Amino acid sequence: MKTPFASREKFEEIAARYGTPIYVYDERGIRENARRLNRAFSWNPGYKEYFAVKATPTPKILKILKEEGCGVDCSSLTELMMSERCGFSGNEIMFSSNETPEADMKKARELGAYINLDDYTHVKFLNDLCGIPETVCCRFNPGGVFSVANQIMDNPRDAKYGMTRGQMKSAYRDLLALGAKSFGIHAFLVSNAIFNEYYPMMARQLFELAVELHRATGAHIEFVNLSGGIGIPYYPDQLSPNIDIIAAGVREAYNEVLVPAGMGDVRIFTELGRYMLGPYGCLLTRAIHEKHIYKEYIGVDACACNLMRPAMYGAYHHITVLGKEDAPHDHLYDVVGSLCENNDKFAIDRELPEIDTGDLLVIHDTGAHGHAMGYNYNGKLRSAEVLLKEDGSTELIRRAETPDDYFATMIF
Ligand SMILES: *Cc1c(COP(=O)(O)O)cnc(C)c1O
Q1: Which of 130, 363, 393, 398 has its CA at 20 to 30 Å from residue 306's CA atom?
Q2: pTM metric for this prediction
């Protein structure tokens, strides 16, 4: 069973004070999880998590993670600008982009960020644009499928990202000739992996590649970036990945592959997004209508513009009807938003307790790739975000959009 991170009373208080729909984040959960991650990887002295800004681009969240020792992973100009304004600089910033516009690349270079090149042609692109920094990272795509115990987990061959093995070697050679002194290797092969084998298996592949590239080109490998992809249990019957087991698995591969090759100084980096924030944010919404036609519908004041994952991916998000946790879940509902789009459904045929207009619903696990993916279709406005602090008080960390925000770019 999934339980919300705050009490019904606290959520009622938040709804009364700030209105709904609203995103609520749990500062304690975020900090404890970040500490758990850093502890698990503390065997590697150079370890650093670069939080994937795209997952939760909210300054207060970035600052909390900075206090916990994390850097940021940016993918665009505005994410770089936001990170700069939050106090991140130089090697606290990873720039993992693809099909990179010139202005974005220039900004990353200006900030002294680690630049992660997505393609072989980007070596020349970067060099012509603003020169090659001392340390450069290249993104690897091994092709094929990524499977665990004969089960296909994802399909790198169909992914647009990264370079082939041969291109990695050529890129390293060219970069060395252009003055690069040390290197990173990056790959992202599986999204939302809730099995513990993902990082250790990929790490081993990347460590082997690191040894191969070092031997073939003489390049000094400074870091291996395992990127994002560790998942969270969206379904109540799923188990959370165990970060201690995952980190120990990476350590074993490190000791077996890198250390014997004399590369025991390689730093491990991660760019987790979902794992860092997903469970520590929820979307609080109120039931405002009920409708009985061929199915039973509950209309809520949030819509897919506030949380796109169910509409876009058919993603499951657990729902708790506050105050009715123990009531029999004997109603079958579609919980829907107000968009003129029939995919605007937070739940389809979901067994829930009887919902009355006015009930508050917690949509779980929306702390990452939630508010961030919001949009303005149908003229809908994105909601506010509030932080539930460790002392139990609340702080508005993003105001809701207003009609003026919506009209700001329009030319009448
Ligand atoms: C999206 C992304 C991440 C974060 O992914 P999660 O699934 O949230 O962990 C990290 N690195 C890169 C390059 C990404 O595109």
Answers
A1: 393
A2: 0.98
